[in-house]
Design goal:
Rossmann fold, alpha/beta, single chain
Length: 289
């Protein structure tokens, strides 16, 4: 068992830090809203700290799951950032979905300070975090990954080193690109079937057993038919992720016509007030038109 800090106690970070504590690790947490950190300590033990630097002081591993590139820089850099408090040889593990550019930037900044950095975005959503069944895609040095993998296992069902710094974030981009097209296809198929007068309960039960079956169909098909979107991965977050994908594609020359189109559709969902709806709300654009 070892000492760790966890920065960011949102819908993902709160249960992830909890799994680390339940695995027997000594965990100190930081959150911008101190009341949430206090609630976590009351539930899981450990301690809270007033700044990322204070949380990171003296621990072996620092984990983070915050909002975006700027949020990540805010908790790592500067006099109150985690890098200022970390001891030489300590490892920073970032579970935020960010650009590959900021992952490489912070990996270089960590090296200059005698620290290690692993970009480790996750897939599986809030439910996966709560159940400890996330998929984690990592970028960094193999020797450093070997050190941190046993701790990641506390909240992951699968973790893999994908390559050097930034490779974890690039893999997460592939993940989001695939999801975007899949959810739009599912929305169109379900709306088509309903317009055709089919028994959609029967349709879902049948086609989920064939080549069209997917996690999205199994977990979101029924709720999409009912128009229920008040859960899961929010549209605001998906648009942030797709923006990262489209920016990276502009640099590497990849064509993302479907992802770009679906990003526009999510913009329309936001225009309907669906910023915090689940990403499966794409069907709302079809069902109400």
């Amino acid at each position: 068992m070892t000492s760790a800090a966890f920065l960011g106690l949102g819908v993902m970070g709160y249960p992830m830090a909890g799994h680390l504590a339940r695995a027997g690790h000594k965990v100190t947490v930081f959150n911008r809203t101190a009341a949430k950190a206090a609630a976590w300590v009351a539930a899981h033990g450990g301690a809270s700290a007033p700044t990322p630097a204070a949380a990171a002081a003296g621990v072996d591993f620092v984990f983070a799951c915050v909002g975006n590139d700027d949020d990540l820089r805010a908790v790592t850099l500067g006099p109150d950032g985690a890098f200022a408090g970390m001891k030489p040889g300590a490892v920073f593990v970032d579970h935020t979905t960010t650009s590959a550019r900021v992952a490489r930037e912070l990996a270089a900044a960590a090296r200059e300070r005698g620290l290690a950095f692993v970009d480790a975005p996750v897939s599986g959503g809030q439910a996966g975090a709560e159940k400890g069944q996330l998929t984690v895609m990592c970028g960094g040095d193999p020797a450093v990954y070997e050190r941190v993998e046993p701790l990641i296992a506390a909240f992951a069902r699968f973790s893999r080193l994908m390559g050097p710094s930034g490779a974890g974030q690039l893999t997460k981009m592939v993940n989001q690109i695939c999801i975007a097209g899949l959810v739009q296809g599912l929305a169109e198929g379900l709306n088509f079937g309903a317009k055709a007068g089919l028994d959609m309960e029967a349709v879902l039960e049948t086609i989920s057993k064939g080549a069209a079956g997917s996690w999205q169909m199994d977990n979101r098909g029924q709720t999409m038919l009912r128009g229920e979107f008040d859960f899961g991965f929010a549209v605001d977050w998906m648009r942030k992720d797709l923006g990262i994908c489209l920016d990276e594609a502009a640099r590497n020359g990849a064509r993302l016509p479907v992802a770009a189109l679906v990003d526009q559709f999510y913009g329309q969902v936001q225009g309907r007030g669906g910023n915090r709806w689940d990403t499966s709300s794409l069907i709302d654009l079809l069902a109400r038109d």
